[in-house]
Design goal:
By secondary structure, the chain is α+β, with helices and mostly antiparallel strands. The chain has two domains: 3-65 and 191-226, no CATH class; 68-186, no CATH class. It is 48% helix and 11% strand. The chain has helices at 9-20, 24-33, 36-41, 46-56, 79-84, 89-100, 106-126, 139-143, 156-165, 173-180, 195-208; strands at 3-4, 66-75, 182-190, 236-241. It has a four-stranded mixed sheet with strand order 1-2-3-4. The protein is elongated. It starts with a strand and ends with a strand. This is Sel1 repeat family protein.
Length: 242
């Protein structure tokens, strides 16, 4: 069973070579044929053009079974994922709140849980694609995600809660989470929703990291949307604390 991944540039290169049953030099040759400056001007077209160029150079069709993805999380302990895998957005939120309740006065627990879940449940009812668990295609995206606008040190649904309800409680929620939860990246394997899209993302990543001005937080690949289907514990490959 062939599993592709995008841990870093060399890993992405190796994955493309494996998928096409080609040498790394052949993959690099296809990349070098495409002018890097053009990749910046037309980033959405880069993967298509690279795949076309590779075919013109005599490349074969790609084949693979699974892909690795990288989920950014604030976790109470490592066994959370080993025992439960990655849960859907709603179930994951319920588990997070149960862990958070250890540091909250019992009388406040139910109020916080109700308020924190209200908006999430409303969002899930109107956005089926947001069912989670969400994950990034590349390790870089997951590691540097907090620089791209969202504070990934706190679960997204709970950021909404803090913003709207902080003044109703006397807790410093951000400090509680910072002091008691660890930042980590959960690496897991899954079948891509679209294998062609995943291959295109690998091509695009390889071009972007070799482009002048590249920053690990200034691009977004397709990722894993989850749609409410959990990731089983046996799909968890590694957990990196950051």
């Amino acid at each position: 069973m062939l599993i592709l991944s995008c841990k870093d540039y060399n890993d992405a290169l190796n994955s493309l070579a494996k998928a096409y049953s080609a040498s790394i030099d052949a993959i690099k040759s296809a990349q070098n044929t495409w002018i890097k400056d053009e990749a910046i001007k037309q980033p959405s077209q880069t993967p298509n053009l690279l795949m076309h160029i590779y075919a013109e150079l005599g490349g074969k069709d790609y084949h693979f079974d699974l892909a690795k993805y990288y989920h950014r999380a604030a976790c109470f302990n490592k066994t959370t994922f080993i025992e439960n895998g990655l849960l859907s957005a709603r179930d994951g939120a319920v588990l997070f709140l149960a862990q958070l309740s250890r540091f909250i006065i019992k009388d406040d627990t139910k109020k916080i849980k109700t308020l924190a879940l209200q908006k999430l449940i409303h969002r899930l009812s109107s956005e089926p694609e947001s069912g989670g668990p969400h994950a990034f295609t590349s390790y870089d995206e997951a590691h540097f995600a907090s620089k791209s606008g969202l504070n990934y040190s706190i679960p997204e649904f709970f950021q909404d809660f803090i913003y709207e309800n902080q003044d109703k409680f006397s807790y410093d929620f951000e400090k509680i989470i910072s002091d008691n939860f660890k930042q980590c990246i959960v690496e897991f394997s899954a079948t891509p929703e679209c294998k062609e899209t995943y291959i295109r993302d690998l091509w695009r990543y390889c071009i972007l990291v070799n482009t002048k001005g590249y920053k690990p937080d200034n691009y977004h690949l397709s990722g894993h949307k989850g749609k409410g289907t959990p990731i089983n514990p046996d799909q968890i490959l590694d957990i990196y604390f950051i």
